[in-house]
Write a structure and sequence with these properties.
Blueprint: E1 10-14, H1 19-29, E2 33-38, H2 63-68, E3 73-76, H3 82-93, E4 97-100, H4 106-109, H5 114-120, E5 125-130, H6 145-151, H7 172-195, E6 200-204, H8 205-212, H9 214-224, E7 241-246, E8 249-254, H10 258-267, H11 282-288, H12 290-301, H13 306-315, E9 320-322, H14 326-330, H15 333-337, E10 341-346, E11 350-355, H16 379-386, H17 391-399
Parallel strand pairs: 1-2, 1-4, 2-3, 4-5, 5-6
Antiparallel strand pairs: 7-8, 8-9, 10-11
Helix pairs in contact: 1-7, 6-8, 7-8
Length: 403
Amino acid sequence: MAKRPFHALKVIEYGEDISAPYCTRLLAGLGAEVIKVEKPGSGDIARNHGPFPKGQAHPEKSGLFLSLNANKMGITLNLEKKKGQDIFKKLIETADVLVENNAPGTMEAKGLGYNTLKEINPKLVMTAITPFGQKGPYKDYKAYNINCCGTGGMSVGVGDPKREPLTMPFSQGGYQAGGTAATAVMAALLARRKSGKGQYIDVSETEVWATTHTGQNVLNEGFKGISGTRKGIHGGKVYPCEIFPCKDGYVSLIAPQIEQWKRLVAVLGTPEWSKEPRYRDRKAIAEQYPDEVNAKIIPWMMEHTKEEIYKLCQDNRVPAVPVYDIAETVNHRQLKEMNYFVELNHSEAGKLKYAKGPCTFEKADWEWQKAAPLLGENNEQVLCERLGYTKTEMTALKKSGVI
């Protein structure tokens, strides 16, 4: 197999939870060597979050941590101590990339800000991921996904129009910010080829939402005075763009073209209601009474399974897809054919299935060979074999709380 794109890249991660670990997981998947730095004793906060096997919490068995930290090396280092800061600087000397998601000013307070680190390694690409960025009136505010979703203009468009706005599920802001950071790192590495110098990258989760979702809505506000709308299960400018309940779940269905609508009506058996003038203006339906038409279609849907509906729509060239639950997605024949899921054996959590990467490379697949590290698993390998510390010094570092 060909070498992976980042096989020679050396990355240090001093982050926790989702955004920074997801960024470096992507880089590790592309072949980069990632050394994850965790706090002695407690480690990454994600170790406290499930799912856990049989619901029993264990810092080495967190589904969140295991998923985000495969293919990485792990060390512990107390950056509150001078000795820990010195060791960190030694790691930076040979690193290409540093990714962190601490509060603004945290790294500077430890003597590890970019201005200090670039003197040690001018080629370093340092990426900081925070809720609101490194400057501005909100920079020091603590925030979760719900805060960034609301501030970035995402929540106003999510949910039922008759109810309050919703935040995006599963901490998607952290994943979106991590993915954006990985892309920015790649761009900075390309720039480094010409300049020979690294740079500092400031990733704001709020700005990520404002960019990926709100951009069009900003134009809507400017052109039409629309400040944001929610459509719930409804969508599109013409009917239908809906999620329908069916006999065994849900089906997502869209028919923006008139010919698609005619074919859908035929699939439904050309009911009498479909011949009425009121139900021919599909733009009016979408804007004024989609629930009314849904009520006429749902009884037919409830008589069929989602796979039956899917097959009928396929045969009649009507865009539709079943809404699969996670178990169905994991076992879906398309993802199996793409070898999307892999199994890794973890010494504490056992053999588990993991999702690989969001694309496929012609010459080199994603790196998925090693389960997430135990807390401090690679301390000796990194500190002794790479940085030259003796085992006696390692013992002293442990006793003094540095590692």
